[in-house]
Amino acid sequence: MSNNSLIASIAKIKGFDLNLLLNFEAIFIHKSVSKAAALLSVSPSAVSQSLSRLRSYFADPLFIREGKGLVATTVAENLHIHLSDGFSQLINSLDYFSDTSTKSKFVIHSTPYAAMRLLPDICAKILEDQLNCEISHINSDALIDSVEDVLIYRKADIIFDSKPYYNFSTVTEVYLTEYPVPVCRKEHPRLGTRLRAEDINHESFTFLNAGSEGVKRMQNGILDFFGHRDFFFSSSSIIANTSIIEKSNVVGFIPRWFAEKFSHSFNIKILECDFVPEPVPLYMTYNKSSLKNPSFVALLKIMNTLKELV
Question: What region holds the HTH lysR-type domain (predicted)?
Fold first, then answer.
C-alpha cells in the first residue's frame, strides 16, 4: 500500500476505536462475551459495551443469542472474513518484535572510511559474543547527508560521523580520535622523510571535502602554519585522495591509522613534520529511545568496550 493510500485509509476510519475490532474477534471465536473478556483480561461489561458500540456502528446485531452461546449474523461473518487475515498478520508482526529470540537488525550510517575503520572489530566482537543481530551498513556522504535527517526519519540506528549532533532526543559522544599526518608516494622526487614549510611552494596537495567543524579546524590549522597551498585534487573520500597520492607527486594529509595500515598497499610514506595538525574526533550518535531495546543496549555495550581499544 502506498503512503497516499494509507493516509486516505486512515482518514476514513479516524474516530473509530480499533480496539473494538479486537473485542469483536474475541467474541466471534469464543461465541461468548464472558470468554472473550477472559481472553482479553477485561470485564464482561467492558466487552458488552464494545459490542454495543459495534452494533451501532454497523447497524446490525452482529451476534444473536442461541442457547448458551452467540451466533454470528451474516454481517458478522463477512466482517470476520475480512478481518481475520489482517489480524493474523498484525499479531505475528507484534510477536516478531516482542520475541527476544528473534534476530534484531541494526542499521549503521557512516562514511566508507569510518566503516572500514570501525565495523570489522565491532562485527567480530558481535560474533564472538553471539549477539543475535544483523548489521546493515549504509554509506553516507560527508557533504550531502544530514545527521539530523537520518535520525529524525529513523534511517539508521547508529551514526558515525565527524559532525556531532546535539539534541534532547539523542546521545552524541566522541567514539575515537583521528590524528592526521602528511603523506606522499614513496618514490616522490623531492620529498625524503620530512615536509617543511619551504616545500609547500613546490608541491600540489589533495583536499578533503568535509563539512564538519573538526575537519575544518584541522585544515585551518594547516593553513595557518604552512600558508596557501596549491590544491590539485579534492574529494570527500580519504580513500580516493590516497589513491591519487600514490600515483602522482601530490601530497596530502590523511589519518595516521589509515596511513600505517595501508602504506604498502597504497605505496605511500608518512612524512615527519614540524607542525602537528589538530586531531579530528569521530562521533557516535543514536536516539535515546533506542535504549528501550535490550538488543540495542547489548550492541552499545560491545561498542563501548571496543571504544577504548580503537
Answer: 16-73
Q: Centre a 10 Å sphere on the Cβ of residue 99 and count the other Cβ atoms it contains.
A: 9
Taking CA atoms, 140 is separated from 65, 115, 116, 136, 161, in Å, by: 63, 10, 13, 13, 9
CA-wise closest residue to 276 among 195, 202, 162: 195
Distance CA(210)–CA(213), nearest Å, equals 9
Is a pLDDT exceeding 70 seen at residue 11? Answer: no
Torsion of CA 287, 293, 299, 300, to 10 degrees: 40
Per-residue pLDDT band at 76 (split at 50, 70, 90)? confident
pLDDT in tens, 89-99: 666 666 555 55
Residue 128's closest CA among 308, 310, 306?
306
Convert the pLDDT of each residue in 18-63 to its tens digit: 778 888 888 888 888 888 888 888 887 888 888 888 898 889 998 9
DSSP annotation of 251: B
Helix (H) or strand (E) holding 300: helix 294-307
The rounded distance, in Å, linking the Cα atoms of 226 and 63 is 86
Which cell goes with 49?
459495551
What is the edge-to-edge ordering of all strands in the sheet holding 268-270? 252-255, 180-185, 268-270
pLDDT the model gives residue 143? 46
Report the range out of 98-107, 155-164, 255-264 with the highest average pLDDT. Answer: 255-264
Structural domains in the chain plus CATH codes: 3-97 (1.10.10.10), 103-176+282-308 (3.40.190.10), 180-278 (3.40.190.10)
**In the chain, which ranges are E strands?**
63-66, 69-72, 104-110, 133-139, 158-161, 170-178, 180-185, 194-195, 204-208, 230-235, 252-255, 268-270, 272-273, 280-287
